Amino acid sequence: MKTIIEPFKIKSVEPIKFTTRKEREKILKEAGYNPFMIHAEDVLIDLLTDSGTSAMSAKQWSGIMNGDESYAGSRSFFRFEKTVKKITGHKFIIPTHQGRASEKILFSIIGGKGKYIPNNTHFDTTRANIEFTGAEAVDFLNEIGKHPEQRADFKGNMDVDALEAFIKKTGKENIPLIMITITNNSGGGQPVSMQNIKDVRAVCDKYKIPLFLDACRFAENAYFIKTREKGYQDKSILEIVQEIFSYADGATMSAKKDALVNIGGFLSVNDENLATKCRNLLIVTEGFPTYGGLAGRDLEAIAQGLEEILDENYLHYRIRSTEYLGEKMINAGIPIIEPPGGHAIYIDAKRFLPHIPPYEYPGQSIVCEIYLEGGVRAVEIGSVMFGKYDKETGKLIPPPMELVRLAIPRRVYTQSHIDYVAEVLIETYNNRKNLKGCKIVYEAPMLRHFTAQFEPIK
Question: Is this structure's pTM higher than 0.90?
C-alpha cells in the first residue's frame, strides 16, 4: 500500500510563532490555565477544535470574490439552497451564521420546561441551547461506546432499547423531537451506522416523533458507513449521504466542519409550519431568510465546500490522517478511544492519569501539560465541559468519560506537524506521574469550559 498523500497542493502559507517552555508557563498562567484563553499566535499547533479552522480551496476563495451581496434574493443564496437540498432532500433550508444559531432557533421554538430531547450524545452547545429553554437533554449512547479501550465499528450508535423505554416512561407528548449526532463528537468522533439511523427512525415513526440530525460531520460519517457497513461499499458518498438525510425530518448543521468554511451553518426542515416559525425567529435574530446572518460570499463558499467534502479521495485522506496519529499514540501506550474517530483523537484521561480524581479535572491537567510541553492546544471533554453539581450536596457529578480531544483542522497541517504532535504527546505521557490536578476558581453558569479559570493543586 502506497503512502496516502494530501489530495491537494499548498498555495498559500502563514507563519507559526515558536515559543519556549518558560514563555509558555507565563502564557498559560495568565490564561488562567485554560487553553481557550491563550492568544492563538502563542500556539504552535492548534487542535482546540476543527470548527471553522479549515483551509479553504482556490474555488472557495474564488466564490468569495463572486458572492452576491444583495440583501434579499441573493444569487449566492439560491446556489447555497440548491446544494443543501441536493444533499439533504429537505424542503426548507434556512441559513444561519453557525450551528449553535440553528440550535438556538430550533429549540427556542420546540423546547421549554417539561420537554426532553434524546440524542446519542449531545455536544456542548446543543445541550446548552436545549437547557437554556428549560428542557432537558438526555443521552442514550450504546454500551460499547462508553468503553474507550474496546473496538467496534460504530461506537457512536444510539441505544435504541433505552430510547424506547425512555419514551414510554416520559410520554411521547413531552418529546418534541429526537436527535442523532453524526459523527458522535462527545463519544469520541465515532460514527453512527445506517442501520442504527433506520432503527431510530422506526422508533420515531412508532411514536410519531420527528427525527433530526446534528449533521456537522455528515460526510465523515458517510465514509465510515461506506468502508465498514455491509451493502454500502459500491455506493457513492453522495448516495450514502442522501440516504442518511432521507430518514430525518430536519437537521442542524455547523458548516464550519464538513462544509470546509470558517463561518456559517443551516437549519433544514420538512415541516412547513415549523419552517415558518423558524424563519420568523431568524429574521429577528439573524437576518433576512436569504442571508441569515451571513454574507453572500459565505454562502458561495459553503456551497462549494459542500461539493468538495463529497470527494472520496479527500475523505480517505482525512480519515487515514487522523488514524495515523492514533496509531502512533497507541504504539506508545497512550490510552485513547479506539478505534480512532473521524475528526479527532480522544485521550482517555482516566487511564492516562489514574491518580487524579474527576473532581480535580485530569483532562484539564493534560491539556495544560500538552501546551507547556510543545505549544499544542487541545480541549478537555470531561468533568469541566459536562460535569454537573448535585443540587443537595454540591458535589460534582462527573460524566461517564474523562477525555481530551485533539481535533484536527481540515487541510491545514502536514504529516510532519502531526509527527511533532505525537512526539509532544509521548513526552507528556512519559511525564504523567508528575502531573497534578487543578481546581476551578471562576466559572460561568453555562458552557463554563470556554471561560473558566483554574489553579493547579499544589
Answer: yes
